[in-house]
Amino acid sequence: KSLRSFEFDANPNIxxxxxxxxxxxxxxxxxxxxxxxxxxxxxxxxLLIALGTEVAMAGYRVKYTLATKLANELVEAADEKTLxxxxxxxxxxxxxxxxxLGYMQxxxxxxxxxxxxxxxxxxxxSVAIASNESFSGWTKTFTDPRLCAAIVDRLTFGGTIIxxxxxxxxxxxxxxxxxxxx
Length: 182
Hints:
The protein is an alpha/beta fold. It has a single domain (25-179), classed as P-loop containing nucleotide triphosphate hydrolases (Rossmann fold).
């Protein structure tokens, strides 16, 4: 996915100038976070991957993962006594992109381990997340309210928040296709 292939006209909630400014990577240079928040089909994952690609093309180290995959990997690493090594590995990249945060509830252990990764990166390296849930709804994903508040705090302090809205591009595209049939 690339910024060139993103249809900005399909989602008026997304400011193309703001996204193109992010593509210049200053936020990564300054170790700032990015949060893409909106309903399913509004372009969050596309933008997350496209911006991650721009950052990588600028010479930075980038890692992309799904939130549940990250939680599972950290739990397995803790069980295998390799957690410190795994957290260090996630700390070495310049930008960590975490997709689908908020889609599924994380167990307490997984949530706490993700918190450790975010804490390791705080103000040292950038994190970009895409979530279908507003920050107030993150208590469904991170069920401990204090832990949830600390995670939101780390992901928003000094960062950029882009709200992609509620209208699904995919659903509108499918509806147009069905409407074109005789």
